[in-house]
Amino acid sequence: MQHDQNGSCRRPPVQRISRYVSIVVISIAIAACDDDATTDAGMAVQCDTPAAQRYLPLAIGTSWTYDTSDTGAPNVVKTQTVEALEDVGDRKVGTTAYRLRTTKAGAGDVVSWHEDRCTSVLRHREQTFDANGVLLSDQFYVPSKLRLDETASNLVVGATFSTEFTEVEVDPVDGTHTVSKMEDWTVEAIDETIAVPAGTFTCLRVRKVTSGGADKTFWFALGIGKIKEQGEQLESLTSYVPGATP
C-alpha cells in the first residue's frame, strides 16, 4: 500500500478534551480527572477518525521495523507488530487493548497492550521474555501510561502537559515492586521534515522526560506512526506495513 510520505501533519480539529493528571493508589486506581481516556477506562471506544489522520494508527497486522543503535554497539533490527485486539487480562481484566509484540535480533520478545482512546493511546501492560521465551517480568501501569496524546490542544507547538502513573512490576523471582512516576511532555514541532531509511516524512516531534532521568524525543507521522526515536538509543524506521482497515 502506498502512502504520502510528504503529507501535512496538520489534521482537522477534533473535539477538545481536557488534559488529565491521574491520581494513583497502588491496589485500587482512582482517577480524578476529566479526560474520557481515563474515566471510561476499560470501555472500548468507537473511533471514527481515519487512520490517515492519526499519529499512531493501530490495526491488527500493522508492523513497523526499525534500525536501532546504542553508542558503541552494533545496529540491531527491531520489529513491532500488532497481533490482536483483546482483553488485557490479569490486573487489567475488562480493558480492551491492542496486543503488540516487539522483537529484536538476538533478544527475547516484549509483549505490550495499548488501548486506543481515539485522542490518545495508553499502555496498560508489558511483559518481557528472554530468548528462550521465559517470562522475566510482567509490568502493569495504573491507571495507564500515556503513549501519545492526540487531543487538539496538545498538537500545537509549545504545548506542555504532565501525567502520573504507578508502575507495578511482578517479577517471577523477586516478587512485586511498585514505583510512582511522572512524565513531562513538550510538543516541539508539528511539521518537521525527517529523513530515515523508510523515506522522508513530515512529523510531529514530542519530547518526554520521565522522573528518574529518562529523556526521549519521538517523531510521529500521520497515518504511519513512530518514524524516529532518540534517547537511550536511536531508532529509525526502515519499513512499514499497514494493517487491516477496521
Structural account:
The chain has 246 residues and is mainly β. The chain contains one helix and twelve strands, in the order αββββββββββββ. The longest helix is centred in the N-terminal third of the chain and has 4 residues, at 36-39. The radius of gyration is 17 Å and the shape is globular. It has one helix at residues 36-39, and strands at 63-69, 76-89, 92-104, 110-116, 120-129, 135-149, 160-171, 175-196, 199-210, 215-221, 225-230, 234-241. Strands 1-2-3-4-5-6-7-8-9-10-11-12 form a twelve-stranded antiparallel beta barrel. 2% of the residues lie in helices and 54% in strands. The chain has a single domain, classed as YmcC-like fold, CATH 2.40.360.
Furnish the topology, listing elements before pairings.
Elements: H1 36-39, E1 63-69, E2 76-89, E3 92-104, E4 110-116, E5 120-129, E6 135-149, E7 160-171, E8 175-196, E9 199-210, E10 215-221, E11 225-230, E12 234-241
Antiparallel strand pairs: 1-2, 1-12, 2-3, 3-4, 4-5, 5-6, 6-7, 7-8, 8-9, 9-10, 10-11, 11-12
Give start-end ranges of low-pLDDT stretches.
1-41
Shape: globular
Task: Please describe the biggest sheet, giving its number of strands, its sense, and whether it closes into a barrel.
Answer: 12 strands, antiparallel, barrel
Structural class determined from secondary elements = mainly beta
| Highest CATH level, the class | Mainly Beta
How much helix is in the residues?
A: under 10%
Q: Please compute the radius of gyration using only Cα atoms.
A: 17 Å
How many domains, as an integer? 1
Roughly what fraction of the amino acids lie in strands? over 45%
Oligomer designation: single chain
Average pLDDT confidence is 85
N-to-C terminal Cα separation, in Å?
16 Å
| E-strand count | 12
CATH fold label: YmcC-like fold
Counted by DSSP, the helix tally is 1
